[in-house]
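Lecture notes, continued. The same structure-token format from the folding unit now serves as the input rather than the output. Read the line below as a description of shape only.
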């Protein structure tokens, strides 16, 4: 169903994955931001599911380039720079959003961003920056940000976190709750017992990072209900 889409950012080649539903007419659009290692089959399959199950147009962006995962020994340093300064990643997120909006099947008034791990942080940062999206969703996403939410953040937020996640401890969840409440944001946080980091990824299998089928299934349903509400 889907197809690769090449695009450039500051002269560098990126390759994302676009999935469009059958039929004609404008449909809601969803931008998907991948996990730290890079664009893999995981976000591509999610794009296909969004198109097949819900009739959404989905674009899985590429934020490292060439549509390929990074070597494992480079991921930490590259992600660390993005986490310290989200403005470094934002142009790549906006470029992916532009690719989604370029589809004539997308209703630009009904667009959301979602992501996994750092990709979830990237989706939320798009909302923080006032990107033209109505919602942002984070699956096992980092919640900390160097700048407090301001008036640019108007999108609705859904974050889904495993209670055993060592990357997102209770103190970070509490700080996010306080920040969103202070900003007056419409937000939701769902916690999953027994789930660690990367609970949606079947290939996650190391300390603190592990697939958890019940949480994967439940978080997908929570996302579906949330998008049905914001796109209504």
């Amino acid at each position: 169903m889907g197809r690769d889409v090449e695009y450039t950012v500051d002269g560098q080649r990126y390759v994302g994955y676009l999935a469009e539903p059958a039929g004609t007419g404008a449909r809601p659009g969803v931008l998907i931001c991948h996990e730290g290692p890079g664009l893999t089959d995981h976000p591509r399959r999610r794009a296909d599911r969004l198109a097949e199950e819900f009739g959404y147009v989905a674009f899985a962006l590429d934020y490292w380039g060439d549509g390929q995962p990074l070597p494992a020994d480079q991921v930490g340093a590259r992600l660390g720079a993005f986490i310290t300064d989200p403005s470094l990643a934002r142009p790549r997120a906006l470029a992916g959003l532009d690719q989604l909006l370029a589809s004539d099947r997308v209703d630009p008034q009904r667009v959301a961003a979602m992501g996994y791990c750092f990709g979830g942080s990237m989706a939320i940062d798009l909302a923080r920056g006032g990107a033209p999206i109505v919602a942002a969703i984070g699956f096992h996403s980092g919640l900390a940000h160097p700048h407090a939410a301001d008036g640019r953040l108007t999108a609705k937020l859904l974050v889904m976190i495993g209670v055993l996640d060592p990357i997102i401890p209770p103190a970070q969840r509490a700080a996010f709750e306080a920040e969103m409440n202070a900003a007056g944001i419409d937000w939701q946080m769902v916690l999953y017992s027994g789930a660690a980091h990367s609970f949606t990824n079947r290939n996650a299998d190391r300390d603190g990072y592990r697939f958890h089928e019940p949480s994967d299934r439940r978080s997908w349903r929570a996302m579906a209900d949330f998008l049905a509400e914001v796109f209504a």
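Point for the exam: The two ends are 25 Å apart (CA to CA).
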